[in-house]
Design goal:
single chain, alpha/beta, six-stranded parallel sheet, globular
Length: 299
């Protein structure tokens, strides 16, 4: 997999995002005990990874150059885009993103960022009047990058597949601006819009690798725990198949989720293999150190 917009490590203070701090995503946060909000670069925001701003033209050109170098210089069997998204709903609130969004709106915003989100005293975010448009615009930014990535990869190596690594929790995917569902997928969140639908990534991908990182294996188990059925390996796999209909889906299992419960891990591996078009096990070191080989389904 090719790490795309995750361009630095917070604790270590290393990565391209530290070499080029103007590339960092800007996060909106509550301004301490006072009123209002503050804008924090990704290196100072919560989390372990420093994300670059996907809307920054220099960032996109750099990432495309990395892809070109890989496919032109190395005999890879395919490309999987990882972290080709926004960090979360708090990003990106840079001046650059504001200007680009206002250009799409056709007018300046009088209240920034309140017209998009309001941050409450406990740090939770409530949608503003332009939230739906903002969500769709961020998705269009990611679509633009993935479309360009497809051109770069397939102009050099037309025979290899281009895929994307995503989280299986599609009903929350608007938070990261990554519409990996088909254009006519059912609207599963309030921020859905026709413009979001238009930003589907599937026309530019050969398959989708979906991280089914749930301890609950069956849909019934998730429901008994008070969670929606899709928050399970089986439920997440079935939802991914539904929203991507026509595009192959490979299920991913994170073995550390099942540490100390080999039977549950075995069930998760088999559910992912049976309900999707393939299986990715994350990661190989866990398979080796935990001696999971016998539990991994064979082709």
């Amino acid at each position: 997999a090719v790490n795309v917009f995750g361009e630095g490590l917070v604790r270590e203070g290393v990565g391209k995002a530290f070499d080029r701090p103007e590339w960092q995503s800007v996060h909106v946060m509550r301004a301490g005990e006072g009123t209002g909000v503050r804008f924090v670069p990704a290196s100072g925001a919560p989390g372990t990874i420093v994300y670059a701003n996907p809307a920054h033209p220099e960032v996109q050109l750099y990432e495309l150059a990395v892809l070109w170098e890989i496919v032109s210089q190395y005999a890879v069997d395919g490309i999987v885009l990882d972290r080709a998204r926004y960090a979360d709903l708090t990003a990106d609130f840079s001046d650059l993103s504001r200007a680009r969004f206002e250009a799409v709106l056709g007018r300046p915003m009088a209240n920034w960022p309140e017209e998009i989100v309001q941050v409450s005293s406990d740090g939770t975010m409530q949608p503003g009047p332009l939230f739906t448009s903002w969500v769709a615009w961020r998705a269009s930014v990611i679509r633009g990058f993935v479309r360009a990535a497809e051109r770069v990869v397939h102009q050099v190596r037309p025979e290899i597949p281009l895929a994307m690594y995503v989280g299986a929790w599609y009903p929350t995917v608007f938070e990261v601006g990554q519409n990996w569902g088909r254009a006519d997928a059912p609207p599963l969140f309030a921020a859905w819009s026709p413009a979001w639908s238009d930003a589907t990534l599937l026309p530019h991908l050969d398959y989708v690798l979906v991280g089914l990182y749930y301890r609950a294996v069956s849909r019934g188990e998730a429901l008994r725990q008070g969670a929606p059925s899709w928050r399970s390996v089986a439920g997440g796999a079935l939802l991914a198949r539904e929203v991507t209909r026509g595009t192959p889906v490979v299920g991913g299992i994170w073995l550390q989720v099942y540490a100390g419960d080999r039977d549950r891990g075995r069930g998760a591996l088999h559910a992912a293999a049976e309900l999707t078009d393939g299986l990715m096990v994350f990661d190989l070191s866990d398979v080796v150190q935990g001696d999971w080989w016998e539990a991994v389904p064979q082709p």
